[in-house]
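# nightly structure sweep
# worker-07 picked up a monomer target from the shared queue
# config: single-sequence mode, recycle default, output format = structure tokens
# input follows
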Amino acid sequence: MDGGQPHAPCYTNFKRERSVASRRSRKTKGNTPVQISNNKKSGFTLIELMIVVAIIAIIASIAIPKLMSARLAANESAAISTLRSIASAQAQIQSAAAIDSDADGGGEYAYFGELSGADPLRISVAGVETAGVVGTDELTPAMLSNAFGDVASSTVQRSGYVFQIFLPAATATGVTGAVPEDATGGMYSTTLPDPDNCEILWMAYAWPADVNKTGNRCFFINQEGDLLQMNNRIATPYDGAAGGPDFDAAFSIAGDMASPLGINGVAAQDGGTWTAVQ
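# output follows
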């Protein structure tokens, strides 16, 4: 209060301040007012972008090798698991005598095409081993996934690894050779495995489809459940469908799949160091 006189209404000061602010925010060109924008466009500077790129490169240099290593380890673990599944399927088909191509009552081991039901089983005709009939002699139910029926160059590829089964040939002069699966699966050719030896012997290898990218180690399994590994650091590493091991690679005697394995100080035929998978 000032001498008891009331103050002027406050809206007069508000209008005056608003008018001053309006004039400050405008410039005139002739009689036409021009509004000045106070907005500024923002963005990254070149240096800021270079810093971001450098950070991403550092993170990638750390993460990518770890991802590759994890992928290799996963593929190798999957290969071991697959070989164990193959061994289980072989034990089942042999004990069930689903294949008895010499009609002696003894069950025999099989190829991928036979185990997956994609190709007919070997049969006996008057006691003589013969290729089965398509549409009649397939295994039902199959003991392996039908994916194992996708055979090419006598091999199957799964999760970055190549797999191949060998069955025994007839023993001659104390040496037992091996017969690979037909190129597209099963056994249709005239070079059939030996029925008697097929009751007691089989083996399979697994090696990288692309060495150092999908896997490193090579693996082996047989009718005894011997699961071996080899670091694949040999003169010519096993690599791809066309670059797999010879059937006797893990054995101590050349050309003989009935010979002892090349482990525990005994040299293997491929010169690699084969050890048991722990």
